[in-house]
UniProtKB/TrEMBL annotation:
Descriptive protein name: NAD(P)-dependent dehydrogenase (Short-subunit alcohol dehydrogenase family)
Pfam families named among the record's database cross-references: adh_short_C2 (PF13561)
Keyword Isomerase attributed: no
The keyword Oxidoreductase is assigned to this record: yes
Lineage of source species: Bacteria, Bacillati, Actinomycetota, Actinomycetes, Streptosporangiales
Keywords: Oxidoreductase
Species whose genome carries this gene: Sphaerisporangium rubeum
Family note: Belongs to the short-chain dehydrogenases/reductases (SDR) family.
One term of GO molecular function: oxidoreductase activity, acting on the CH-OH group of donors, NAD or NADP as acceptor
InterPro entries per the UniProt record, alphabetical: NAD(P)-bd_dom_sf (IPR036291), Sc_DH/Rdtase_CS (IPR020904), SDR_fam (IPR002347)
Domain of life: Bacteria
PANTHER family for the chain: 3-OXOACYL-[ACYL-CARRIER-PROTEIN] REDUCTASE, SHORT-CHAIN DEHYDROGENASES/REDUCTASES FAMILY MEMBER
Length: 234
């Protein structure tokens, strides 16, 4: 039974990923600012990933209780739609604090435990938005490219004992994504995806499960794009 910590597991991709590991018999801890849906079998620890001392304390508590931390998935993320002329400083700083520095803080805290135990896997949710331009999400896009840079750097500094990887999803039907859509935008986006549809959160969860497994033992410092072919022709 592995000890697996996932941020942002009260909703969407994180929730599906927590369920995937829980089903496999792993001990899963969800760090989220919001509570999970009623009936969730996964343990929730309230924490804001932008607050490094909060995530550090949460991981220290998990480590003390479980004796080890095997897998950490930095998944919590937010987005704000705004044009580059109108981005507010407060919004941009919050997006960076959560999506980029939140990953760095959580990974740093986890890596300190993993280095002592001699092994561990650090995973994160990036996005195809880090791979190419998407209008109205300048700060979000930059944070996602930054997460891939963190992934490469941690791999170089902490190999061979610690592995890292990011999953870069294309469009996934989650509350975050649905909140962005008005009118027939959903169908419009589906038409742009070669697979003809959005991913289900479970399809991203399966990728995380693979990346954390021994089957991925020679994979580190890499970004795995799961986008139904959206960026294949880009
Ligand atoms: P979601 O809004 O359904 O879930 C995000 C979860 O993160 C929520 O439970 C929220 O409470 C939590 N969260 C937000 N800020 C937090 C903070 N500061 N500290 C702790 N928890 C926090 O969104 P989702 O679509 O499942 O997104 C998950 C990740 O996937 C994000 O990093 C997002 O950028 C990325 N992503 C999503 C899509 C998509 O199409 N949905 C595509 C590519 C990447």
């Amino acid at each position: 039974m592995r000890t697996v910590v996932i941020s942002g597991a009260s909703s969407g991709i994180g929730e599906a990923t927590a369920a995937r590991f829980h089903r496999a018999g792993d001990h899963v801890v969800n760090l989220d600012v919001r509570p999970p849906r009623p009936g969730s079998a996964v343990r929730w620890v309230p924490a804001d990933v932008a607050d490094w001392s909060a995530t550090e304390q949460a991981l220290a508590d998990v480590h003390q209780e479980r004796g080890r931390i095997d897998v950490v998935i930095a998944n919590a993320g937010i987005s704000v739609r705004h044009g580059v002329l109108d981005i507010s400083e407060a919004d941009a700083r919050r997006v960076c604090d959560v999506n980029l520095l939140g990953v760095l803080g959580l990974w740093r805290a986890a890596a300190r435990h993993m280095v002592r135990q001699g092994e561990g896997v650090l995973l994160a949710t990036a996005s195809v938005n880090g791979l190419r331009g998407y209008p109205f999400y300048a700060d979000y896009n930059a944070t996602k490219a930054g997460v891939v840079a963190l992934c490469r750097t941690f791999a170089l500094e902490l190999s061979p004992h610690i592995r890292t990887a990011c999953v870069s999803p294309g469009a996934v039907l989650t509350p975050m994504q649905e909140a962005e859509y008005t009118g027939d935008m959903l169908d419009e986006v589906n038409r742009r995806i070669p697979a003809g549809r959005h991913a289900a959160p479970e399809e991203i969860a399966d990728a995380f499960f693979y990346l954390a497994s021994p089957e991925a033992r020679f994979l580190t410092g890499q970004e795995l794009v799961i986008d139904g072919g959206e960026t294949a022709g880009a």
